[in-house]
Amino acid sequence: xxxxxxxxxxxxxxxxxxxxxxxxxxxxxxxxxxxxxxxxxxxxxxxxxxxxxxxxxxxxxxxxxxxxxxxxxxxxxxxxxxxxxxxxxxxxxxxxxxxxxxxxxxxxxxxxxxxxxxxxxxxxxxxxxxxxxxxxxxxxxxxxxxxxxxxxxxxxxxxxxxxxxxxxxxxxxxxxxxxxxxxxxxxxxxxxxxxxxxxxxxxx
Amino acid sequence: xxxxxxxxxxxxxxxxxxxxxxxxxxxxxxxxxxxxxxxxxxxxxxxxxxxxxxxxxxxxxxxxxxxxxxxxxxxxxxxxxxxxxxxxxxxxxxxxxxxxxxxxxxxxxxxxxxxxxxxxxxxxxxxxxxxxxxxxxxxxxxxxxxxxxxxxxxxxxxxxxxxxxxxxxxxxxxxxxxxxxxxxxxxxxxxxxxxxxxxxxxxx
DNA sequence: ACCTGAACACCGTTCAAGT
DNA sequence: ACCTGAACACCGTTCAAGT
Lengths: 204, 204
Description:
Two copies of one chain form a homodimer. By secondary structure, chain A is mostly helical.
């Protein structure tokens, strides 16, 4: 046997695959070693320990994020398009985003979208601090929405108490209470809330 | 020795204290047992296992959330006030909120604020589905913002690459790029983005 | 009813030893 | 340079046994 059995790259590759398929909790050093066909301790020569291994994974994910580009004719449409693409990007890699989030690298992950938004916000006429705040407001809204979305959709069941809570309402609020006790479409809510935010931002 | 050394209540009490002070990761059955002055296995008689123990903690946190009330003269002001109070509530119990979030009970946690918002949104003239969507948009914006805020503030350092990224910009965007490379005040951004969202929602 | 102790199957990590 | 094996200090959980 001459060539090394594993390398830092192969370790990262299969670690990445485990996280993508089964989540971070499934990434144990022993399982990783088993899938690599090596003794547990063999890993430690290539990556220092589990913490730095995860750090390298985060770097990879962030580094491989492609650019985000706008689309549409008006600045408002183009800002919305960036928001939708960022949301889509996060949705497509749930485990990896969780990884980045839990290691406090979310700000880095948002950079491509931030660039795209800066351009469109500038085109919409917002300069300097006002423009920066608009960019950040949209960014925070989108990423925050997706983070929350993940939690709510994970929710074991539509809690019965949630529906019951709105039953006793009377008068003009009855229709509102009724509507709140029904399930909702997260795509529509995202669309609606983001466009409301952008409208509010663009009018100063 | 006649009276039991521990009860389900005392187990939950000290488990809660550990999580509040040191986070969920610090809650091990063995540490819990040690702090209770009992053998590890003694815990299992009172709460089935670690999973159901955490489930009970989540129930407690959710059950102990007080009401959220509005304040201010105009509907817009009162909606903003609810948003600020919800954010404050979450900020005040970071570990517990993380607990609720990671166990998919965030929707339940938002109920008090949802009630308060429903009332104010109704008073602002939004009924039925439109009102429900406005309530949910504000709710998602606030909670999402705080979730993201936690991640970004956890971020080890203001990444140098973030600042460098904006250096080469030219022309009218220079001021915007400059503003984006500077740190920002999360309180101000929250205030600004929430009020923009509410403005956008109230104007249909 | 309430608690202990031994035992099992897992972890991450270190370190001397092998090739 | 690269990998193994033994060992250590942790986990959560089960179960027979004690009182």
